[in-house]
Amino acid sequence: MADGKPGSFFWNELMTPDPAAAAAFYKAVVGWDKGAMPMPGGEGGEYHLWQVGDETMGGMMQMSGPQFQGVPPHWMAYVHVADVDAAAAKAGSSGGAVHAPPFDVPGVGRIAIVADPAGAMLGLITPAARQD
Predict the structure, then answer these.
(1) Is pLDDT above 80 for 59?
(2) What's the pTM value of the predicted model, to 2 decimals?
């Protein structure tokens, strides 16, 4: 995962129904390789990592299941916040909307998905403590 401080972009993630086609496209266009790891939180399946050499640039997950019905493929940017619960509450009280209330992803952190007043989506994350 990326390092950072509250207020900085922390992670970028591609949500796509076809990870193999996306991997071929991004390899050709920007030179990213695709690694894989088990899906965080024990959800089953693989979580794909975008890599350049030994550096991880972001992630990719397959859009499957009813929660993705009608949702187009997209990139999601996550911003590091000190307290996801407080930031999500502020998003809702500041004219935005909370699309996914705060939830925990073991080993990753606490995440919420919000939208600004115009509808632009953003992920919020309080990263889990590093286990070096």
Answers:
(1) yes
(2) 0.83
